[in-house]
């Protein structure tokens, strides 16, 4: 039998009614002839509650215990959905990560899946089980302790199972009906995409579009897993949602596929840093150790052996970054005159594989922003995306203007 | 290092504050020189919530999934307490049943512990871990699925660990400060016992005193585990609580140690049953299959080949019992004229190993009840207990009168 992987996020299993509703979708795919592997998240809110308890108990918690605690929510939904399916006369059972086993690295709270042996689940399919309901987000370390994959990790669980079981498709059921050209809450002309290339989705995911965990898109791209994002609340429609696929499968393509944003960014500038080899390492080493996620980096042109170094990171990490840099300065590892933080910036990005073959996209983006009077503070580019840091107050305006200028409301 | 087992029930770990408080008690025992194994229940209310979800999802649930779901509450408290202890600089880690592993039978929801290998936890103690926080109530079946031990099963987990690790003592922390001569809510002269014999505790537990799970007392008796019941809310006192121990360790002993009751009992009478060999089996076989917990059984003197058969069971099981008996009658397996249910009865029992050597205890009990005008409906006795079924409205009066008559408020 062909295998289908279906993943239901927290809002899709938030109540017993919703679990029942999701189970109906599973039943339909069983009727369609699939052996189904369902990956479930915890009921929405549960994981946050557990994380809150852990942080209150131990601010600098042992990640092994964090994982043991926060993984429990998925076990509950997995069991409940198996029960619901059994009530519908569908042979189903739940699987916790260690039972499959989902073998991961020992990097607790941010573990990576290393292997998912098919034996146990395949044997049960052979015995007549139609649905394996697997607790997402969790695995087991080489030491036999429970690991978790980081927030949103159930997406990654789903893609990893699809890859391991050569699934025909991996359907990610969520509270939106697909991937949009941009956030419809900001731009009401935002259009749902029928298809999007892996590379584009990867950029959008890492740029702040929260529809899929970045790691899951990476995995899907690597293992050529057909990934579909669709709503668990809409009526059944086999063509629904957005298919994330190889770019070859996308015939027509706008130069720009979407506009992404990340609201709460900060820009830090080290003023007058001694410009000599190794200085970047001296700066970004301590930041990495302090767990600061440095995103964009810009170095000014050097004058008289000194330069300004600017980087961006999430607003919530500014204090940590300042501490790390001040400590490094006091330890004599780096030398700068001043450290200036601007915590009122946002990042806006345009993404599209069409950029590769089409010139002038960057120029057009800068022109659009200039015409709206929006000052660009930092720019970074890759082959298929351009990101700018701007004042937060212009973020919505920038998203709308770019969506308009690149005519994203129109299918190509 | 000597090993101490400490068990904290649901009310003792109901909040983060209470977990912190329980952790302080653990820390004190570590300071006293013990390697400590802590057994935790779920935060109070959590297991009931999970059971409610399971029952709503699937009234005739698959017990394997029930176990997978309801065992999750203990995992949360185990992790949180390990974190709390780490915050107090005590090397601690959590263990889920399958990690130890706590090997049980495959009788889901009512599994029995078969083996607790010491290797894993002992190795960690040798590495410097001072506290193993184990999720109570759960284990793993020969098939690698999660099992649970039945409600109150964490007591059994605690005693089984104490036996497996030759613990010096097993301290059961709960919301009462020990075992009383009777329920203090009914008789305000009820006195806390300093010691009670295993046999007595076993009778009290099965007769409705909810302080310990019956199975845990059985295990403690079999493996000679010194069991102490004490309050997690009282101030620290090394002599606190009630010690459940061998009767040889109890020097002075009242004839009656305590008065137990079970409020919601029912009495069913099969009127005019054909009295021939095999009839009892024909009656109680179907009841057992229907899951009815038959307690007391009385058969009237036979007249003209027919007799009345009376038995008691919990009120909640009367409908099930009636259905099973009616079905058996319709199937021609048994024959009776009428089935009469009295759902307004309670059971009151006196328990004491002193009864073995002291005559007249039963006569005194019946006399006390007669003087209060309380009619006895059914009587059963064992070597160390006498139980009577009486009208529910007299239950409190019977408990008080018996407590008074046997002078249980006075230590012997």
From TrEMBL, chains A, B:
Coiled coil: none annotated. Pathway: Amino-acid biosynthesis; L-methionine biosynthesis via de novo pathway; L-homoserine from L-aspartate: step 1/3; Amino-acid biosynthesis; L-threonine biosynthesis; L-threonine from L-aspartate: step 1/5; Amino-acid biosynthesis; L-lysine biosynthesis via DAP pathway; (S)-tetrahydrodipicolinate from L-aspartate: step 1/4. Pfam families: AA_kinase, ACT, ACT_9. Residues 268-348, 350-412 form the ACT domain. PANTHER family: ASPARTATE KINASE, ASPARTOKINASE. It catalyses: L-aspartate + ATP = 4-phospho-L-aspartate + ADP. Belongs to the aspartokinase family. Keywords: Amino-acid biosynthesis, ATP-binding, Kinase, Lysine biosynthesis, Nucleotide-binding, Transferase. It comes from Sinisalibacter lacisalsi. InterPro entries: AceGlu_kinase-like_sf (IPR036393), ACT-like_dom_sf (IPR045865), ACT_Aspartokinase (IPR054352), ACT_dom (IPR002912), AKii-LysC-BS (IPR041740), Asp/Glu/Uridylate_kinase (IPR001048), Asp_kin_monofn (IPR005260), Asp_kinase (IPR001341). The keyword Nucleotide-binding applies. It comes from the Bacteria. This is Aspartokinase. CDD domains: AAK_AKii-LysC-BS (cd04261), ACT_AK-LysC-DapG-like_2 (cd04923), ACT_AKii-LysC-BS-like_1 (cd04913). Its EC number is 2.7.2.4. The keyword Transport does not apply.
């Amino acid at each position: 039998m062909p295998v289908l992987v279906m993943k239901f996020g927290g809002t899709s299993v938030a109540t017993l009614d919703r679990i029942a509703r999701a189970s109906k979708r599973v039943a339909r795919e069983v009727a369609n002839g699939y052996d189904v592997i369902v990956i479930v998240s915890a009921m929405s809110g549960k994981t946050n509650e557990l994380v809150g308890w852990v942080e209150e108990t131990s601010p600098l918690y042992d990640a092994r215990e964090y994982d043991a605690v926060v993984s429990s929510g998925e076990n509950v939904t997995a069991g409940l959905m198996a029960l619901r399916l059994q009530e519908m006369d569908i042979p189903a059972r739940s699987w916790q990560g260690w039972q499959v086993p989902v073998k991961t690295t020992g990097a607790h709270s941010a573990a990576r899946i290393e292997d998912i042996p098919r034996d146990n689940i395949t044997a049960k399919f052979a015995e007549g089980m139609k649905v394996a309901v697997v607790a997402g987000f969790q695995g087991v370390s080489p030491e036999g302790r429970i690991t978790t994959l980081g927030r949103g990790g159930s997406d990654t669980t789903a893609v990893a199972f699809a890859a391991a079981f050569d699934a025909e498709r991996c359907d990610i059921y969520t509270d939106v009906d697909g991937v949009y050209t941009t956030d419809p809450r900001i731009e009401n002309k935002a259009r749902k995409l029928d298809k999007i290339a892996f590379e584009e989705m990867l950029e959008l995911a890492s740029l702040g579009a929260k529809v899929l965990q970045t790691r899951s898109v990476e995995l899907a791209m690597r293992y050529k897993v057909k990934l579909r994002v669709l709503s668990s609340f809409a009526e059944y429609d086999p063509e629904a949602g957005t298919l994330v696929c190889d770019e070859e499968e996308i015939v027509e393509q706008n130069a720009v596929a979407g506009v992404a944003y990340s609201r709460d960014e900060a820009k830090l500038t080290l003023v007058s840093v001694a410009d000599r080899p190794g200085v970047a390492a001296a700066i970004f080493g301590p930041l990495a150790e302090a767990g600061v996620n440095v995103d964009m980096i810009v170095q000014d042109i050097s004058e008289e052996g000194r330069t300004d170094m600017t980087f961006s990171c999430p607003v919530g990490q500014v204090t940590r970054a300042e501490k790390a840099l001040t400590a490094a300065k006091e330890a004599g590892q780096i030398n700068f005159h001043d450290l200036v933080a601007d915590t009122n910036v946002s990042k806006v990005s345009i993404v599209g594989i069409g950029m590769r073959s089409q010139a002038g996209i960057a120029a057009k983006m800068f022109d659009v922003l200039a015409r709206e009077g929006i000052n660009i503070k930092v720019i970074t580019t890759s082959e298929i995306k351009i990101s700018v840091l701007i004042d937060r107050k212009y973020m919505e305006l920038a998203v709308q203007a770019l969506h308009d200028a690149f005519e994203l409301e129109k299918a190509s």
